[in-house]
Design goal:
By secondary structure, this protein is α+β, with helices and mostly antiparallel strands. The chain folds into 3 domains: 217 residues, Multidrug efflux transporter AcrB transmembrane fold (Up-down Bundle); 79 residues, Hypothetical Protein, Haloacid Dehalogenase-like Hydrolase, Chain: A, domain 2 (2-Layer Sandwich), CATH 3.30.1240; 173 residues, Gyrase A, domain 2 (2-Layer Sandwich). Helices cover 53% and strands 21% of the residues. The protein has 15 helices and 20 strands. It has a 7-stranded mixed beta sheet with strand order 10-12-11-17-16-9-13. Strands 7-8-2-19 form a 4-stranded antiparallel beta sheet. A 4-stranded antiparallel beta sheet has the order 3-4-6-5. α12 crosses α15. The longest helix has 54 residues. The chain is elongated, with a radius of gyration of 34 Å. The two termini are 23 Å apart. The mean pLDDT is 82.
Length: 547
């Protein structure tokens, strides 16, 4: 009997020791611990959720229709390139709607059959929709449009996750919601505006030729004040050559910090895009200015060399999300597959640009549906109130148990404290994220922590009323309450498991706390309190039990 008690005491002591070791990294003074401790013992603790340490909460909506439109636009450019490569000169290849591409060809030009052969071989997702004299119209099918939209949200999710991973946010929550929404929680972010800009930037990198040969280019103003771009576009819209557009470069006066915009007339068709990049990193030039150095993959390097060789002495605009960053003159062919983006960057701006370029462009723009910023002070206030509620709940339960069950109630309170110690240790061991609903789960566990003991004590009382000795009454009480305790805990565990499976964010936090709490409660109720009663009975034969 004594050997069995010793084994259970050692088991309880071991559980408490391990729980404390895992919980120590969650304490604010853990940073003062020696390095050897952090190297060989647990070094990760409980992570505070967004509502406790502050941060940002975003719901983004992927503009799926724009993804379809972007793909159609790019495909039109690729079709033109393929047809030119096959020596099939056509008048134009252009997108006429978000899902349709029109190819116009002269009657004396290439045969319709040859054009169809090239398109069917290289672009199977587009099928012939309409045939007119000198014109072929190709369109995406409904199944293909649905696939593109679904892939756009999936790709946007992965791209945003890659950006946030490189940004360095601990324990972010990034998940899909519905068909085209993405939920993002970034706890502990110190610069919310920078994070939002990094997450939401489309980062569509394009290289377009500047059309300096057009008379319209000479008529454009040298610069305009910020906010007047739309007026310039309206003024020249009717005069623009087909295939051209006006884009602007941001210019900042270093002395006055005044921002102006310089208009450029550029070709709509991009000669190269950022999807061929393999690397982007921040570098410093000879004037101590930050710029982003980019490297293309073999295909991109070959295309870049071809573009620069064919357009020597022309300007090539480097454009990110329809904003020109620079438009250098091509002095010679660049076969290395390397280029640089400069634009009066700060080191942080250049670093953020490198991050979004490495992670890749979003397949379509995203729109912010919900934007919530939780300040650290609000999170600290939530923690203080949560701790206060936990302490008050614990004190009330302790007082009630001692008042109602006397010495046995004190033993139940011991089980309650044991339950809390092991619970926080388990949360730390799992590196769980503690949220405000999670604290509610802990408080609920306090109530459930003595619920099992109430069932056991009532059974013990029944046994004592029947005149049984204390030792037999205690053993009988535990045996008779065992199945009832298991039944109540299993049903609650099933509910908590369903909440975890189908809930999101805070609901999952509540479910985790509840699942761990009721599981640990079984251990503390059936092992923790029983070993105390057995130890008391082993010391001396009790004639009466304070219950």
């Amino acid at each position: 009997m004594k050997k069995n008690i010793r084994t259970r005491v050692i088991l309880l002591a071991f559980a408490v020791l391990v729980s404390i070791l895992f919980f120590l990294p969650s304490m604010p003074w853990y940073s003062a611990f020696p390095d050897w401790w952090k190297k060989y013992l647990p070094s990760k603790g409980i992570t505070l959720g967004l509502d406790l340490q502050g941060g940002i909460y975003l719901i983004l909506e992927v503009e799926e229709d724009k993804a379809v439109e972007n793909l159609t636009e790019r495909t039109a450019n690729y079709m033109k390139t393929d047809l030119d490569g096959k020596k099939l000169s056509v008048q134009s290849v252009k997108r006429t709607s978000p899902t349709e591409i029109s190819i116009q060809y002269p009657e004396s030009g290439p045969k319709k059959e040859d054009i169809l052969k090239v398109i069917e071989a290289g672009f199977p997702s587009f099928s012939l929709k309409e045939e007119k004299p000198g014109e072929l119209v190709f369109a995406l099918g409904e199944a293909e449009i649905k696939r593109i939209k679904d892939n756009a949200t999936t790709q946007a999710l992965e791209t945003i996750r890659n950006r946030i991973d490189q940004f360095g946010v601990a324990e972010p929550l990034i998940q899909r919601q519905g068909t085209n929404q993405i939920v993002i929680q970034l706890p502990g972010v110190k610069d919310p505006q920078r994070a939002k800009r990094l997450v939401g930037e489309t980062a569509q990198l394009e290289f377009k030729l500047v059309d300096d040969a057009s008379p319209i280019a000479a008529q454009l103003p040298f610069s305009v004040f910020s906010g007047q771009e739309e007026n310039v576009v309206k003024e020249f819209q009717s005069k623009l050559p087909e295939g051209d557009e006006i884009l602007f470069e941001k210019v900042v006066n270093k002395e006055s910090n005044q921002v102006t915009k310089r208009p450029y007339l550029v070709k709509k068709r991009a000669v190269l895009t950022g999807d061929l990049l393999t690397d982007a990193r921040v570098s410093i030039d000879q004037f101590n200015q930050s710029f982003v150095s980019i490297t293309f993959d073999p295909t991109g390097a070959q295309m870049f060399a071809k573009v620069t060789a064919e357009n020597v002495k022309k300007r090539l605009a480097i454009i990110l999300d329809n904003v020109i960053y620079s438009a250098p003159v091509i002095q010679e062919s660049i076969p290395s597959g390397r280029a640089q983006i400069s634009g009066n960057f700060t080191t942080q701006d250049a670093n953020d640009l490198a991050i979004v370029l490495r992670a890749g462009a979003l397949p379509a723009p995203v729109r912010t549906l919900q934007d919530l910023t939780v300040g650290p002070s609000l999170g600290q206030d939530s923690i203080e109130k949560g701790v206060r509620a936990t302490v008050i709940a614990g004190i009330l339960v302790v007082i009630f148990m001692v008042f109602y069950y006397r010495l046995s109630g004190l033993i139940a309170d011991f089980a309650l404290i044991l339950n809390l110690i092991v619970l926080v240790g388990a949360l730390a061991a799992l590196n769980a994220t503690l949220t405000l609903p999670g604290i509610a789960g802990v408080i609920l566990t306090i109530g459930m922590g003595v619920d099992s003991n109430v069932l056991i004590f009532e059974r013990i009382r029944e046994e004592l009323r029947q005149g049984k000795p204390v030792r037999l009454a205690v053993d009988g009480g535990y045996q008779k309450a065992f199945l009832t305790i298991i039944d109540s805990h299993v049903t609650t565990l099933i509910t908590a498991f369903i909440l975890f499976m189908f809930g999101t964010g805070p609901i999952k936090g509540f479910a985790v706390s509840l699942c761990l709490g009721i599981t640990i409660n079984l251990f503390t109720a059936l092992v923790g309190t029983k070993v105390v009663f057995d130890w008391i009975n082993s010391r001396k034969k009790l004639e009466r039990l304070s219950i």
